[in-house]
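Database export, one record per block. Field names are fixed; values are copied verbatim from the stored entry.
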Amino acid sequence: MSAPHGAAPAAAAPGAVEDKGWRSRALFWGPVLPLVALDLWSKAWAFARLDTLYPGAPVAEESVWTGFISFSLVKWTNTGTVWGLGQGMTIPLIVLRCCALVLLAWFARRTPVTNRIQLLVLGLILSGAIGNLYDNFTQPQRAVRDFLLFFHGQGVDRIVFPAFNVADSCITVGAIGLFFLLLREDRASAARKPAVS
């Protein structure tokens, strides 16, 4: 119901945060540009370095350090999704990722501005999705560039964690954070429900 003619609008509750649309959700969209820029720059830098060291090689690896856990820069591409799953399903995965961008924006718009951590983790996921989609639209075979490789052991017996990039890191950290936030919210909702006698 609207206020009577000439009446002053109702004052906001003390401590309430005014929802100014996207302007009040800087924790969602604010990290996107720097994180996407970091992702694209780091992929380009790593692949250019390995192209210089191993000219013409379709795949390459440069050891950075060795130990119990070793780390290498690699020049690998992935036409699928996480851990190399979904090879040969590049186009459906691109469509799915584009739909995910819309869903993330919708979810962030519905997230209260006071829920800053949730806005931040949604922004992380969005940043990673954009970084990998850029590769889908610009790279040969629509493949995503991966260049960070951690592993244990040496030679054929080494245990390899799947190669990844900055975008993958953003998606993983954001998804784990969102999982725990939603889990906490479910538990809080269950605790608020009155016990049925």
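Remark 1: Residues 25-188 form one domain.
Remark 2: The two ends are 38 Å apart (CA to CA).
End of record.
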